[in-house]
Design brief:
Length: 703
């Protein structure tokens, strides 16, 4: 009879075999499968019925299963001995998996049938991990790139053989040290700071860096550093890999030489200096230092080439380049950027003495083919940050200044003035536009009446130019005449004004009104030697205009300073029959001189004195003085800028009877002149001047 234990225990053991996650195979004495547990069925995909009676190696072995291991197992089965081994098996779908197999013989004296039990567990994960590690280890050992592994304190934990090959340091020499033992000293602290910042922020840095081998030789490396976190963020290593790119660099340097250097002088070329200038600007900004860009051009270099031949010319350039390079401060950078043009870059403050010295470096005699020759240069200089523009702009501005220096003669320098330059640029643009506007007939004349208070007669109109700009509308002369002044357009525009004023007079004449007109003439235009002839032609072209009705208004100006020629010129004009008025009188320095020496018919008191004369005793005194002087010299006197009745009355009292200003009317288009005049005259016939001014007011024309 079996005891309860003898019944229950095998039963329970069978249960264990069924529920365990280990795979269990029971083989018969011949090694064929007798039973497998559900874990095996699930893992291998083979049902017991399908494999019962088959040898396990028949269906579990696959192409990569180790044949030696199979042989060993067979031997253990044959000898009935226990074994343990790792084995690659294949499941029913042909997928490989690693198992650890423990095999033990069963049966024997206790009466159990002899056979074998195999207990297997899946160890694929471990096996694959080990494999990865093995690959990693071989990458580490065999990589052509050097690898440094360092800990959190950046102490070297391991290096690979390539590290030793590239740096010359053996592994044992560097373990525990910082990778900075390789430092070449070429890079700034800031460089390393940014590198570590990048590692802190992105776990990565990559770039080129110069280091030093054990033998002291510098080498360039392309370095990549990664921070590798293990299980927690605080637990990390650094893996730095680098390759030696010195050879590449040297090759690049040769290419760079070809691209950046001038073969004749060996000096850097334009591309290089622009690059350098960009960097120098940053340094200048950082250190709050000025930067000087100089443009040097040999005077009359073409002559040397033409007379002595280009070989001699080349030799001269070579010598000059060499001298500039040797004799200027060490930190001066010199480039040859064109035929006989050099650019110099000077950091820190420079003085006139420095500019002179640069010129003298060139002007020291050169002996070529036993003949001493004298060469000079012109130097243009611009100063950053005052001239705040990009590298190309700085060179261009120094070039502009060099041209100004050339205009002064040989062996001169000129410093660029950014303010003036901006103004000149704008002026150039404006002049182009104005020339176009003359062509397109965009100018027009407006007319402002001048009044004789005694009899309320309009004695004439002043012609005032306006620019009818297609986009900007009506532009006042104060906004464009300054650009025209002293330009090639000054006479052309003056001419246009004279012609148009005369044409209007002719039209009015033909309409039955003889209207005197004052024409503003710029001083330079008037002093143009051709002026009188041209004026005479204009008058001839408008035969119905009586020259006596034309008044030329001339400004007191430096152009009239040579009063003798001015007087001469005005006299010639008056010979043509026209009258002359001195405009803006009182604003110049030598008003009294003009009054005495120039042959004029009328003076116009500048509106600035009129404006304030009621409140400012000084201005009033000036107005009174001018009126008094004018009367003494028997000139008519007209007050400009009369805006109110009070002004008009005060002037009348002071003895000035002629007035012009918004109080009477604003300047009006030519087309309005006749109707305005008619309106004025019909009122004036019946009323006093006071009423007249009041009614002008009522029409919204002024006061
Ligand atoms: P200007 O010869 O002194 O002309 C008088 C200026 O004063 C005109 O300005 C006129 O509109 C303004 N004006 C007249 N009455 C009053 C007033 O009661 N109050 C105020 N505040 N201003 C008054 P505009 O037309 O702007 O001309 C400015 C200057 O431009 C002229 O000063 C003259 O020097 C010049 N200009 C104008 N037309 C010509 C021209 O055809 N040729 C030349 N060379 N210069 C001209
Ligand atoms: Ca005027
Ligand atoms: Ca004036």
């Amino acid at each position: 009879m079996n005891t309860p234990d003898q019944i229950i225990v095998p039963h329970r053991l069978a249960l264990v075999a069924k529920v365990t996650r280990n795979m269990i195979l029971i083989l018969g004495a011949d090694g064929a499968v007798e039973w497998v547990n559900p874990a095996f069925e699930a893992h291998s995909g083979y049902r017991l019925e399908a494999i019962k009676g088959r040898m396990p190696s028949e269906f579990l072995a696959g192409p990569c299963t180790d044949q030696d291991s199979l042989t060993k197992i067979r031997r253990h089965l044959f000898c009935n001995t226990e074994f343990e081994m790792d084995l690659l098996q294949y499941n029913a779908q042909g997928q490989p998996y690693w198992v650890h197999t423990y095999g033990t013989p069963v049966g024997g004296p206790d009466g159990t049938a002899p056979g074998f039990v195999l207990i297997q567990s899946d160890i694929s994960d471990r096996k694959n991990g080990e494999r990865g590690l093995r690959i990693a280890a071989s990458v580490f050992d065999r990589s052509h790139d050097a690898i440094i592994i360092s800990d959190q304190k950046n102490r070297i934990v391991d290096v690979n053989p390539s590290f030793t090959r590239i740096t010359g340091y053996a592994r044992e020499e560097v373990l525990g040290l910082a990778p900075s033992i390789l430092s070449s000293g070429r890079h700034s602290l800031a460089f390393y700071r940014t590198m570590w910042q990048s590692i802190e922020e992105t776990d990565h840095w990559r770039g080129e860096i110069w280091n030093r081998r054990k033998n002291g030789e510098e080498f360039a490396e392309l370095l990549s550093i990664s921070r590798v976190h293990l299980d927690s963020p605080a637990n990390y290593y650094h893996v730095a890999t680098f390759s030696d790119i010195t050879a590449l660099k040297n090759h690049a340097k040769e290419l760079d030489r070809a691209a950046n250097y001038d073969p004749l002088t060996g000096l850097p070329n334009r591309q290089w200096i622009e690059e350098r200038l960009r960097a120098a600007k940053l340094t200048a900004d950082r250190n709050n230092n000025p930067l000087f860009v100089c443009y040097l051009d040999i005077d009359g270099f073409k002559l040397i080439n033409d007379q002595l031949g280009t070989d001699v010319g080349d030799e001269a350039l070579r010598i000059i380049g060499e001298r500039l390079n040797n004799r200027l401060e060490e930190d001066a950078v010199i480039a040859r950027i064109g035929g006989d043009e050099f650019v110099l870059l000077l950091e820190g403050e420079q003085s006139e003495a420095d500019y002179r010295r640069i010129l003298s470096v060139v002007s020291d005699p050169i002996t070529l083919q036993d003949t001493p020759i004298m060469v000079t240069a012109s130097l243009g200089i611009t100063r950053y940050p005052e001239d705040n523009t990009d590298a190309e702009g700085l060179i261009r501005h120094a070039d502009h200044a060099m041209y100004s220096a050339k205009e002064k003669g040989r062996n001169q320098y000129q410093v660029f003035d950014p303010g003036q330059h901006a103004w000149q640029r704008e002026r150039r643009f404006q002049l182009i536009e104005i020339a176009q506007a003359i062509e397109n007939d965009e100018f027009e004349l407006h007319f402002q009446p001048q009044l004789r208070m005694a009899d309320s007669e309009i004695i004439g109109f002043e012609a005032l130019i306006r620019w009818h700009h297609p986009e900007k509308g009506l532009i006042a002369p104060g906004l464009f005449l300054p650009a025209v002044e002293h330009s090639h357009l000054e006479s052309a525009l003056g001419q246009w004004v004279i012609n148009h004023a005369l044409a209007k007079m002719q039209q009015w004449q033909e309409a039955g009104q003889e209207i005197p007109v004052c024409i503003n003439i710029s001083a330079a235009h008037m002093m143009d030697p051709a002026f009188v002839d041209v004026l005479s032609d204009c008058l001839l072209a408008h035969p119905s205009v009586n020259p006596g009705q034309v008044t030329l208004e001339v400004l007191e100006s430096t152009a009239l300073e040579d009063t003798k020629s001015a007087a001469n010129m005005l006299a010639r004009c008056r010979k043509l029959g026209v009258q002359v008025a001195l405009d803006d009188f009182g604003t110049g320095f030598s008003s009294m001189t003009y009054l005495r020496s120039l042959p004029v018919d009328m003076i116009k008191i500048d509106q600035s004195f009129i404006r304030n004369m009621l409140s400012d005793a000084n201005d009033r005194a000036i107005v009174e003085g001018i009126i008094f002087m004018a009367q003494r010299f028997r000139h008519r006197v007209l007050a400009e800028g009369v805006e109110t009745l009070e002004h008009a009355m005060a002037l009348k009292k002071m003895g000035c009877d002629l007035i012009q200003g918004y109080g009477i009317a604003r300047p009006m288009p030519a087309a309005d002149v006749l109707s305005w005049l008619e309106n004025w005259q019909s009122h004036a016939r019946h009323k006093s001047i006071i009423h007249e001014l009041r009614s002008a007011n009522g029409q919204g024309e002024g006061i």
